[in-house]
Each structure stands twice: as C-alpha cells, then as structure tokens.
Specification:
Elements (H helix, E strand, L loop, with lengths): L10 E4 L4 E4 H9 L17 H13 L3 H13 L8 H14 L2 H13 L7 H13 L5
Antiparallel strand pairs: 1-2
Amino acid sequence: DLIELPMVNHSTIKVCCMKRVCDGCILAARLRGMNDRCPFCRTPLPTDDASKLAMVQKRVGKGDEDAISFLGDSYCHGDLGLAKDVPRAIELWTEAAELGSIDAHYQLGDSYYYGDGIEEDEPRGIHHWQQAAMKGDVL
C-alpha cells in the first residue's frame, strides 16, 4: 500500500538510510521486537542529535542527494543541533537538486518564490516546482 497524503504526517525519514518509512511499518517492526533498529536497513537507531548528524554527514560525503537535501532542511530549521542558516540550506538544496532530489527542487521553489532567505524570484521558484512535479512530486 501507499503512504497516505500528506506523507510527512504518516511517515518518518530514517537518517541511517534516508528512506521514508511509513508509521505502519515502524509499528510492525516494534511489534516484532525491533525497537532499536531501522525497519528498512536494520541499522541501530541513533539516540541523540550528534549521532543523527554524523549518520547524515556520512551519507552526504558519499553524494546521497536525499541526505544533502535533508541536511539542507536541518540547516533551514536549525535541527540536529545546527544553527539556523538559510543561505547554507539553499546551497545544499541546490547541490541536491543538481543530483536529482525532488524534495530539494520543492524547497528551492518555496525559497525562491516566497523570498525565504533569498531574494524573491517567482519565475525561478516556479521552475523548481515544475522540476519537482515532473520528477513525481505531488505537492
């Protein structure tokens, strides 16, 4: 089955493998006694922000576009113990978009269209949203 929309309300991104895992799969894994492991890749789950950040940065170092986009989100919101840094987030989203990240295209669309942390550029924002849509983004 598919994850209900909006997906962010019914799933979680696991930083070990950067896969979006639905809440039902997480529950099924817990019922099987896998409380401390990722239901997708079986990696032990990190317990603190520093461990999560280390896992993300390891994947970023390998050129994983989803990890790069996730790190951009973390900088944008000041998550994982990082200071909020929107210009850095835009740099990371741009890199991830060049590698093919749908989420990065969407985030860049928002940032450019609304001028969030960058000079407003509606045509460029629409371009990024179109790129995301052509790659399968439903939002």
